[in-house]
Amino acid sequence: MLRSPDVSDRLVAVKSLQHLGEDTAVEALITALEDENTTVQKIAVSALWEIANPAAVPALLKCLASPDAEIRTEALSALGELVTPDHLLLLLDALHQKDINVNLNVLILLRKIHDVQSLPAILSFLESENSQLREAAVTTVRYLNQVEICPPVLSLMKDADNNVRRAATLTLGHLADKEAVELLTQALTLDADWQVRRNAAKSLAIHADNQAIPALKFALKDENWQVRKFAIQVLQKTPDANLLPTLIEALTDEYSDVRKEAAIALGNLGNANAVNALKQALDDPDRDVSIYAQRAIDKIQQQK
Predict the structure, then answer these.
(1) Residue-wise pLDDT tens digits, 76-124
(2) pLDDT of 153-211, one tens digit each?
(3) Distance (Å, whole) CA 238 – CA 213
(4) Which of 83, 124, 203, 256 has the highest CB neighbour number within 10 Å of its CB?
(5) In the prediction, which pLDDT does 303 show?
(6) Handedness of CA 113, 119, 124, 128 (dihedral sign)
(7) What single-letter DSSP state applies at residue 212?
(8) Banded model confidence at residue 41, pLDDT cuts 50, 70, 90
(9) What's the rounded Cα separation, in Å, for the pair 248 and 265?
(10) Contact in structure between 212 and 185 (CB atoms under 8 Å)
(11) Which of 95, 97, 43 minimizes the C-alpha distance to 74?
């Protein structure tokens, strides 16, 4: 029936094979991936995903080049569960194809394998003319094991594309390049994109380096509340007595998430001069803020 000239016959056949869900149907379903009808192809991809036989991986990889976006998405989801480290060479070979959809999706799949052997192939995309490929590649670097130093990532902090800089900023949080903290503090205070600034704060929280404190103080005045929130989270890990007045001021921030983080930071700072402000925060309209304010008070008093 899968070879019938009537598409309705082929649809019945591929649907029936999907319901059977048997490994013996894999070969026939792989054949159905090349059907001229996209609906037949989509059902075949879904069926192979459900059967979960690794033998379908090479055929599903070919689907990543499909002109149909739904087929590519379904194939990527299926491969996300089926690929293993044993498929590394197969994935790296697919990266040589001059097809942006294949390249993008394979870069995503390499994040599951985490193998540092894929780094040279990934780095070649950091200089791609396509911003989507640069973003995908720099994100994938973040998922690789044993990668601590990666100078090519640093240059993307000045990329013209906002999405690329956002991804590069998060990746720098996992790298130990000596310029990483300095670049992150520059992004936190100077980048025009608030999501880059927010991601810089997130990455600085991982580094927890006192070198960033001046930039964090500046970021507490940022126009975007998420930047202020994550900047305070960094200060929770790197308490600085000089920032006591600024953190107390943050207890009255317009956004409750910022006020809550400020209460936590003040508790970690352990300065008794913050207690009066924290007591006022006990009446905060947001329940979480008042809870964390009380915890901060208790923490400070226990240190006496």
Answers:
(1) 999 999 999 999 999 999 999 999 999 999 999 999 999 999 999 999 9
(2) 999 999 999 999 999 999 999 999 999 999 999 999 999 999 999 999 999 999 999 99
(3) 8
(4) 203
(5) 82
(6) positive
(7) G
(8) very high
(9) 10
(10) yes
(11) 43
Structure tokens at 209: 């380096």
pLDDT, tens digit (0-9, with 9 covering 90-100), for 249-298: 999 999 999 999 999 999 999 999 999 999 999 999 999 999 999 999 99
Residue-wise DSSP of 124-156: GGGG-S-HHHHHHHHHHHTT-TT----HHHHHG
Average predicted confidence (pLDDT) for the chain? 96
Sign of CA dihedral 203, 205, 207, 211: positive
* Total residues found in the chain within this entry: 304
Whether residue 257 contacts residue 239, with contact meaning beta carbons closer than 8 Å, is answered with no
Q: Residue 130, by phi and psi: left (phi above 0), alpha (psi -120 to 50) or beta?
A: beta
How far apart, in whole angstroms, are the C-alpha atoms of residue 219 and residue 185?
Answer: 10
Q: How many CB atoms lie within 10 A of CB 185?
A: 23
Place of tokens 């940022």: 222
188 near 200, Cβ under 8 Å? Answer: yes
Distances (CA, A) of 56 to 31, 33, 79, 201: 11, 10, 9, 42
**What is d(CA 61, CA 179) in angstroms, rounded to the nearest whole number?**
38
Q: How far is 149 from 106, CA to CA, in rounded Å?
A: 23
Q: What is the Cα–Cα distance from 260 to 252, expressed in whole angstroms? A: 10
What interhelical angle do 38-51 and 69-82 show, nearest 10? 10
Q: How many CA atoms, within 13 angstroms, populate the side-chain half-sphere of residue 28?
A: 20
Which residues are CB-neighbours of 255 under 8 A, at least 6 positions away?
225, 228, 229
Cα atoms in the Cβ-side hemisphere of radius 13 Å centred on 281: 33
